[in-house]
Specification:
- The protein is of the alpha/beta class.
- The chain is 25% helix and 17% strand.
- The strands form two sheets. The chain has a seven-stranded parallel β-sheet, with helices on one face. Strands 4-8-7 form a three-stranded antiparallel β-sheet.
Amino acid sequence: MSVEIRVEDEPARAAAEFLVAASAHVALSGGSAPGRAHEIAAELRPDWSGMHIWFGDDRAVPPDDELSNYRLAKETLLDRLSVQPEVHRIRGELDAAEAADLYDEELRGVTLDLALNGIGPDGHTASLFPYAPGLDETERRAIAAEAQLDPFVPRVTMTPPVFAAAKLLVYLVPGEAKAEVVRRAFADEPSREIPASLIRGRRTIVILDSGSASQLPQG
């Protein structure tokens, strides 16, 4: 499962350029890194007609909750666009299992052109946490997941088969604080302890800065 490592002076801009180049189905994520990429993408391409926005995961909270990945995308991307895409929101206001069932059905027949993912300090990506049962999922496209990090809110996540089928999976992981987990995800042997080491698309690009790349082998 080879990856392409790119060390960028402006990681968010590099990720934004992939967002605006996507042709149809894009899955967004939460966390601190994507927000700036969303803002730049809106500047570069204000017309998102014909696009479909999905979410790699979200918490089981209402869409206006501060913990909602949908809310992050709305504030940093959707509200800044002149023409809206079709948005496929995880119904976080519902029970996580019910929301997962609805999303699983909505994803039927969909192949992602791009998934933009981050990595948590424990190595999770989307809401696929270390040693979680979801890492073994092979049939469903979306499942409920229990968080292993604060805030301990039930979640809904896309599954490994959805990411594996994505035409392009982009990891955006800036910051020296992520250097160790970046090494474990992209240089060490794959492990269920570091879910991001297992999740790859048909093509996988990792966008880092000098800090997050500092523990990778040189040369």
